[in-house]
Amino acid sequence: VIIPIIILFEMVKTKINKYTQSDAASNSRPLLLFFSWLGAQPGAVAKYRDLYLDRDMDVLLIQSSVMHFLWPRWGLSYGLEILNILEEPPFTGRLILVHASSIGGYTFTQLLTHIAQDPKRHTPLAHRVIGHIYDSLVVGSLDHMATGLGKTLVPRLEGFVKTTAMLYFRLFKSYTADLYENSIQVFHNSPVTSPALFFFSENDAMCSTTVLEKLMDLWRRRGVSVDGRKWKKSTHAAHLRCHPEEYVSTLQRFLNSLSVPSHKSNI
Questions:
Q1: In angstroms, how far is the first alpha carbon of the chain from the final one?
Q2: Nearest to 247 by CA among 195, 202, 197
Q3: What is the three-class DSSP state of 139?
Q4: Which SUPFAM superfamilies match (predicted)?
Q5: Which of the chain's termini has less CB crowding within 10 Å, N or C?
Q6: In terms of Cα–Cα distance, which of 193, 32, 169, 233 is closest to 112?
């Protein structure tokens, strides 16, 4: 469980050293936090990274371990470590854009949980978030979560993994399901109220479009500007690959609406 955390923060320390030596102009650029999907390969992540580098943004990759999800207390601890880093130099005061894909949405929610629990300390960071993007958010019931584990961990044994996960959730309800429910409530009442964009599809077994669209409507009633791009058919956490032109144009319009600076004519 500790290994993924060490690997991630070694990456973050490398980034910090780089930024410490950067000039003031670099520090004035928005910082993109990319919360990747489980098992994301460097080549796939690079396609998203390049979209933001082309907007003259700095990109910080945040990866998650399945254990951060299976034992939420570790996920919360991990989220607090990330939050603390973002509140220290050289990231202090940087405007932030969030892009969370699949389980990355869960990891970002762990940061939101700490912000909600200690608003006096962490609210300034929430106000630095100029926009948040959710790609293939896992939304719905425990069944959707268990399905996600089966499809991502051992696809050939998807049914077995799903059944085992559901049993695990029942046996350790107070340590898993109850904390998931708390995270869902935090996300519904997110302390981040800047504009949001959702990418999702009707055939995604890990996402209930009905539940997601109700969430989007809830945020709109809270005064959040919410946009979305839904496809009838696509692939979980691979909408960019399946629908590249629509994905990029939708993202471009959203970023332009935030007045995110760009020195390139095309995203």
A1: 37
A2: 197
A3: strand
A4: alpha/beta-Hydrolases
A5: N
A6: 193
Contact 56, 261 (CB under 8 A): yes
Residue 190, Ramachandran bin (φ over 0: left; ψ between -120 and 50: alpha; else beta): beta
Domain boundaries of the chain, sorted by first residue: 2-21+40-257
Residue 58 phi/psi, 5° resolution? -85, 145
Tokens of residue 207, six digits: 């996402």
The yes/no answer on whether domain 2-21+40-257 falls in CATH 3.40.50 is yes
**What is Dmax (Cα atoms) for the chain?**
54
Residue 253 has which token pair? 């319009």
Which stretches of the chain drop beneath a pLDDT of 50? 1-25, 265-267
pTM above 0.85, yes or no: yes
**Whole-angstrom distance, CA of residue 203 vs CA of residue 200:** 9
Tell me the two tokens of residue 65: 């371990």
